[in-house]
Amino acid sequence: MSRLLRGLALVAVLGGLAVLAGSAVLQWWEPPEAPPLTADVIANPRERVRVEVLNAGGVPGMAREATEVLRDAGFDVVEFGNAGAFDRDSSLVLARLGRVDLASMVADALAIPTYQDEPDSTAYVDVTVLLGSIWTPAILIELEAERAQDTVAAPPPPSGWRGVLLRLREWADGLNQAGNQQ
Fold it and tell me: Residue 121, Cα to own-chain centre: how many angstroms?
């Protein structure tokens, strides 16, 4: 009987040591960063892009909807409202301070194909959006559906001991690669 108790105690001690060792290894292990699965346009969080959104198509609520989309994408919409006239069918994004790259990002976020440089030294914004009557948020929903079809979901990591062993193997592979680079 005492031999059985000693065996069980040995198994318990070895199991406890294994748990402690695994915990110590996983405490410092960071999983490798996976590249993003979609190519969504998000403004650089360190760069404030000031945007003005104007309803130039006459559809009620259009500027507010575009403002919400842009704010969700990280842009700073400082003004939205109606344009001087409701005579536009197609939408246009204007770079006001010569930064066509910013206009391109805003145009991509709203799925507007046309942007151009039209400096205005009196404007307090980087980009002006003129929404035409044919722009709708449904365009963005269709675009997101297309992007979702193009992305592949990563499989979930295994759980339990297999997951721990897989993470340990990836960690060891990372150490081997770092050693080979030196």
Answer: 32
Angstrom distance (rounded) from CA 48 to CA 70: 12
In a domain, 7, yes or no: no
Length of the chain, in residues:
182
Domain extent, residue 104, equals: 50-147
* 117 band by pLDDT with thresholds 50, 70 and 90: very high
State the residue for tokens 């110590």: 24
Q: The domain spanning residue 91 has which CATH number?
A: 3.30.70.2390
The three-class DSSP label of residue 60 is coil
pLDDT band at 157 (very low <50, low <70, confident <90, very high): low
Whether this model's pTM surpasses 0.70: no
Q: Which residue has the tokens 């198509």?
A: 57
Distance from C-alpha of 111 to C-alpha of 136, rounded to nearest angstrom: 10
> Distance between CA 41 and CA 145 in Å, rounded?
15
Residue 85 lies in a domain: yes
DSSP 8-class letter at 57:
S
How many distinct structural domains can be found in the chain?
Answer: 1
Residues 6+ apart with CB under 8 A from 59: 131, 133, 135, 136
